[in-house]
Write a structure and sequence with these properties.
The protein has helices spanning about 1-10, 20-35, 80-90, 100-105, 120-125, 170-185, 185-195, 240, 265-275, 290-295, 360-375, and strands at about 40-45, 50-60, 65, 75, 205, 220, 225-230, 260, 280, 285, 310-315, 320-325, 330-335, 340-350, 355, 360. With about 375 residues, the protein is α+β, with helices and mostly antiparallel strands. The chain is globular, with a radius of gyration of 20 Å. The chain starts with a helix and ends with a helix.
């Protein structure tokens, strides 16, 4: 494993910037070998500048196709911050409020039957404090719609909305539907028009609109066989489903909860916008107030805000803000320090999923290696 990683890294399109980076890259390659990472792409921000971007390993281990810096990954749950950022734009425009009831916004009743007099708000679904769960799944809003599913009540936990926390993908698929209903734009097109294009980022939610040759295949580790298995469903085309698409309801087709595809480099540019409280390269995406709201925790134990959470368990002595993602064998992380202006994006298309401090160990170790070798 180690030998092919060294070859793949040597073939990467961006060369070493200095001899000082060589020990760091040697460490990264050792970590990839330790966790059997298929491929890896990283970006490092220091002093508000991208100082490093490198890719290692394979897109396809069978034909030895290497990962390039321009390649794009499905980043899974980091996508949630794109959804929340988009909704904060509408909040700033006065078209919606974080205190608005989801029932009013989504077009069907969203109400915990155990607490019928307690409204579930937009803020609650964006912070996972809504009391909603994924017991009925989250690939369709029928899961929670009382008009479509007689078992809708299973979607609600026993605690009072706003007074508990459970991570829930259905929250964000509803949030995406709300974005469509209020903006009048299809979800993927809204994010493209109001976030990606203003920041000059290449990415999106629909694979048919992206270069297929740039998509990095994902590989799930099978613990029984100790082998990696390709997961082509990660990049399935939604074309057939779009033929009968209803805007504001069929939005989970795009996966507002996890469907963004983007490179590590462009994700780091997006990260810098949040690190600088809503602006990047003189382009303001959301206000400083909105950005700080997103980064302010609404759950004491989890430290989760609006699709961004803070942690002091990633790097000793530093309070980092960001998000992780995992799906189809992919593991991703995007974390930044908004006051000291540094941050990291690390994405792998497959590895052995061991854990350290509630994070995939490969990502944890690589972020710390990059911090100690390039930022500290």
């Amino acid at each position: 494993m180690k030998s092919f990683l060294l070859i793949a890294a040597a073939a990467c399109i961006i060369p070493l910037k200095s001899k000082a980076q060589q020990p760091v890259e040697t460490r990264l390659l050792k970590l990839m070998a330790q966790y059997r990472a298929v491929g890896l792409s990283v970006a490092v921000v220091k002093d508000n500048k991208i100082i490093y971007n490198k890719s290692f390993g394979y897109k396809n281990p069978d034909d030895k196709t290497i990962v390039r810096n321009t390649d794009i990954f499905r980043i899974a749950s980091i996508s949630k911050s794109f959804t929340a950022t988009s909704l904060m734009q509408l909040v700033e425009q006065g078209r919606i409020s974080l205190t608005d009831e989801v029932t009013k916004l989504v077009g069907f009743k969203v109400n915990n039957p155990k607490y019928p007099d307690v409204p579930i708000t937009l803020e609650m679904i964006l912070s996972h404090t809504s009391s909603i769960n994924d017991k009925n799944g989250y690939f369709t809003l029928d899961a929670i719609n009382p008009e479509k599913n007689p078992d809708w009540a299973r979607c609600y936990n026993d605690y009072k909305p706003g007074e508990g926390y459970q991570y829930c993908n259905l929250n964000f698929n509803m949030a995406g539907a709300i974005l469509e209903r209020i903006s009048g734009e299809r979800f993927d097109q809204y994010v493209k028009n109001h976030i990606l294009q203003p920041l000059h980022l290449y990415g999106g939610y629909v694979v048919d609109s992206l270069g297929r040759d740039r998509l990095v295949p994902l590989y799930e580790y099978n613990d029984s066989t100790k082998a990696f298995e390709a997961a082509p469903a990660a990049y399935a085309s939604p074309k057939a489903k779009l033929a009968s698409y209803t805007r504001g309801y069929n939005t989970p087709i795009f996966s507002p909860t996890g469907g963004m595809k983007i490179s590590a480099l462009d994700l780091s540019r997006y990260m810098m916008m949040h690190m600088n409280y809503g602006t990047s390269n003189n382009v303001r995406i959301i206000s400083e107030a909105s950005s700080r709201t997103m980064q302010t925790k609404l759950s004491d134990k989890e430290n989760y805000g609006l699709a961004l959470w803070s942690t002091e368990n990633l790097i000793d002595g530093e309070k980092m803000v960001g998000h992780t993602g995992s799906a189809y064998g992919l593991y991703s992380s995007m974390f930044f320090q908004p006051e000291k202006k540094f941050g990291f994006v690390v994405i792998t298309n497959g590895c052995i999923p061991q854990y350290k401090k509630s994070m995939v160990a490969l990502l944890y170790d690589i972020i710390n290696a990059l911090y100690n070798g390039m930022v500290k």
